[in-house]
């Protein structure tokens, strides 16, 4: 999902780098720029964290970007439920709602 998130902002990043006179034609270089400085790509993540409630076994992820059929993205808030008998830490999707 992180790669999808960076790809969503990649065209903006590449344009910004070109405007700064930097040669950056590769997708990998643009993603590296986003990872190094997310704010320069229009990515704001402060204060947004996933949370897990042990009493209910629910993991809430406030924002997940999912690609759509038209090349864009739809953001969802996702709830996942822990699978108690799993050998490793595992969750199943229990709900998703578009974020407006």
Low-pLDDT stretches are 1-6
Q: In one word, what is the shape?
A: elongated
Q: Compute the number of structural domains.
A: 2
Kindly report how far apart the N and C termini lie: 19 Å
Describe the structure.
The chain has 100 residues and is an alpha+beta fold. It has 2 domains: 2-41, no CATH class; 51-98, no CATH class. 28% of the residues lie in helices and 31% in strands. It has helices at 2-19, 27-36; strands at 51-53, 58-67, 73-82, 91-98. The protein has a 4-stranded antiparallel β-sheet. Helix 1 (2-19) crosses helix 2 (27-36). Mean pLDDT is 75; it is low at 1-6.
Which helices and strands appear, and what pairs or packs with what?
Elements: H1 2-19, H2 27-36, E1 51-53, E2 58-67, E3 73-82, E4 91-98
Antiparallel strand pairs: 1-2, 2-3, 3-4
